[in-house]
Each structure stands twice: as C-alpha cells, then as structure tokens.
Amino acid sequence: MRIQGAAVTIALSVGIAVAHTGATGIVKERMDGMGELASAMKRLSAIVKSGGGDAIELRALGETIMVHSGAAMLERFPEGSLPDVSEASPAIWTDWQKFSEISMDLHSAASELMSAAGTPKMDLPAIVQEIGATCGACHKDFRIKK
Hints:
mainly alpha
C-alpha cells in the first residue's frame, strides 16, 4: 500500500511539474495549491473506495483542503493574473461573487471533514462527494482545460 501511495505521489508531482512549466509568482503558488487540492481529493477518493482511513489522516487531508480554499484561494487570484500557462478563466473576475462562494463552500466542506473525522456518525462518502462536487462546480465554470 505504501509503495502504491508513493507511486501516485511521484506521478502527481511529475504531472504538476510539467503543467507548471513557465508559471511564476502568484500563478505558480495557486497552481501548486491546486495540485495539493487534487492530491488530497485523490487520496480521499481512494480512502472512500477502500473503506479505510483513520481520523488523523482524514483531518490532515481536510486541513490541506482548508489551507488552499476560502480566503486563501481568493488571495491567489488577483485580477489580471492570466498568463498563458494558467488554466484560470477570465470568468473568475467577471463572476467573482460565484467564484468566492464556491471557494468558501470548499472551505466549509473541508472543515466538516475535519470535525467529523473519527466520529461514529461520520458519513465520509457524503462529505467527499460534497467536496468533489464543489471542485467540479468550480472547474465547470472557472477552469479552461489546456
């Protein structure tokens, strides 16, 4: 299991490094943060599929998502930060309210994960589905696939 986890981490790191070629400053910071969000989401999905996961790991994943969402995410999107290497859509700034709401929703879902981790009533699949749906909503409206 640890070998598979290491292989996934290495593969994600290589993919992120290639995708971030040419990114600098705040754009690189946000791209790196998005990479960490993707890694956390992939790990959460694997935990749900395996039926495993312990409270410490779940809280750590929730913290990773919280660190890169909410106000912290919004700070990484100053208006006009759209170099060619970015997948950010100009719609972010034309519908800043919706973008902000999605970012705050992601932060709230991550907080829910941290609070529920290890409790008997935790519904991990539902929480992970909520996090994934929030990510998907943002990608649908505010990400340009390159």
